[in-house]
Amino acid sequence: MALSPVTRRYxxxxxxxxxxxxxxxxxxxxPNILGMAKHRRIQVVARRIAxxxxxxxxxxxxxxGDASRIVYRNKRRCRVGLCMPCARVRAKEAxxxxxxxxxxxxxEAPQNRFIFLTVTSRNRSVAEVANMLADHERALNRFxxxxxxxxxxxxxxxxxxxxxxxxxxxxxxxxxxxTVAAVHPDYFxxxxxxxxxxxxxxxxxxxxxxxxxxxxxxxxxxxxGDNVRASLRECVKYAVAxxxxxxxxxxxTVDPLVALYLADALYKRRLIRFGxxxxxxxxxxxxxxxxxKPSNP
Length: 297
Hints:
Layout: H1 5-28, H2 36-54, E1 57-61, E2 69-73, H3 84-108, E3 113-120, E4 124-125, H4 129-145, H5 147-152, E5 153-166, E6 171-183, H6 198-209, E7 217-222, H7 226-235, H8 242-245, H9 256-266, E8 272-276, H10 277-292
Antiparallel strand pairs: 1-2, 3-6, 3-7, 4-6, 5-6, 5-8
Helix pairs in contact: 1-2, 1-9, 3-10, 4-6, 4-9
């Protein structure tokens, strides 16, 4: 029997809360291998996540004669990158802000076209996840500054994500990013010499990543409208998939070392980036609103 969308969302919320509680317990058991200063910081983070998970209440109510609804309350949000309920709320808020920017962009230039781009890097040990994030961020900066990309793309929203892979004995991590990019109006016109094939994008990303292999790079055109908004939600959904945190074959515990390396890597790190028209739209709207205000006599 298929579950209703409300029931599926209710179960997903419960899993996110369980993942946060398991992460807090794992961080409390994490060994002191990163130095005393970081160890104390991680313990503070663990207490904040535990308090956040404990104060979160999720109820599924079905009033007589009315549709089922979820009552979700949390008065002590920790806002930690590894707290899944906080990550969901943060993604919702980011989507709302980006939607306002997107509406402003389409109002100014309805002819804008968009692409959805995913770029990856090779898996490495989970102990190297902080270095992997730093390498990926530097590669993205070089990628967006390259001449061919700068000519073809007028703005982007990029979200970086960590994918946990491997077995319980050898956990690995892979860093990749999803991007919704606004392209030049003549991007899909072959005569304009702006179009970048997937093979060319692989070459540009390999050069930016400074890798000795061809990384996976996937690009698709995104029709305007609700498809762009759905792609934006994919960009800012979470830093780590909650179900991937649990140990293989055990849906209740998280490896302390995995939680430790992830918490250290995500500490005060911003994984959502804006560029081009997506970065300037907010400032442009603010300046336009100020200019429209009547001056005091």
